[in-house]
């Protein structure tokens, strides 16, 4: 039915868009390898990082998170199909390509892996403990945060909505798995659903006015199409 079709379509849209924003942009002809900046050892000054720090790397459409373990090592959760297919640690430890990432999202498999800061940041800028302001009084000890991250290293289930990289770091550093960017995205989808329902309601009211009340189509049709056009323009 039309009533059920809108939420279903929005849910499908949510899954597709979240899948797209988790795909990392790779340079043309890279074959899935990281850009030169990310591959160069010492590209980032790790002397300002402390064990247990929460690291953020802003992307174009989302933010990637990790916990710094010291000695140029970062624990972070990434969708990855390979841990479900092989136990070869040398293969798994290679930088995750888009193909592996997409298949991991689709099959809902992932791994908490340990990479260098260079591979984790992937050429992007790094923010340190930027989320602490959102959890006043809830920051765990740095050693506790690092130990939590180390205990979770390995294969794990993955969910775009319930178990992503942000859930992982907020659990490690603040004791509660939370994803603010997922919450914001869900709110946006809810607004789209509400807008679609408003447009549908306007259309039905306009049609009912024409059929039941005999109003002139010249005055009623705008009540049908104007909200629709405004919604599409927005």
What is the average per-residue confidence, as pLDDT, rounded to a whole number? 77
Q: Can you count the beta strands?
A: 6
Distance between the termini: 26 Å
Mass-distribution shape: globular
Task: Please report which band the strand proportion falls in: under 5%, 5-15%, 15-25%, 25-35%, 35-45% or over 45%.
Answer: 5-15%
Q: Treating each run of at least 4 consecutive H or I residues as one helix, how many helices?
A: 9
Q: How much helix, percentage-wise, in residues? A: 40-55%
The domain tally reads 2
CATH class of the largest domain: Alpha Beta
Quote the CATH topology of the largest domain: endopeptidase fold (from Nostoc punctiforme)
Q: Secondary-structure element sequence?
A: HHEEEHHEHEHEHHH
Looking at CATH, the homologous superfamily of the largest domain is endopeptidase domain like (from Nostoc punctiforme)
InterPro entries: LRAT (IPR042288), LRAT_dom (IPR007053)
GO biological process, one term: visual perception
EC number: 2.3.1.135
Enzyme class: transferase
Task: Provide a descriptive summary of the structure in words.
The protein has 234 residues and is α+β, with helices and mostly antiparallel strands. The chain has 2 domains: 53-178, endopeptidase fold (from Nostoc punctiforme); 195-233. Helices cover 49% and strands 14% of the residues. The chain has helices at 2-21, 36-39, 89-93, 98-107, 117-121, 142-151, 165-174, 180-213, 217-233; strands at residues 54-58, 63-70, 73-79, 109-115, 127-128, 154-157. The protein has a 6-stranded antiparallel beta sheet with strand order 5-1-2-3-4-6. A hairpin with a 4-residue loop joins strand 1 (54-58) and strand 2. Helix 1 (2-21) packs antiparallel against helix 8 and helix 8 (180-213) packs antiparallel against helix 9 (217-233).
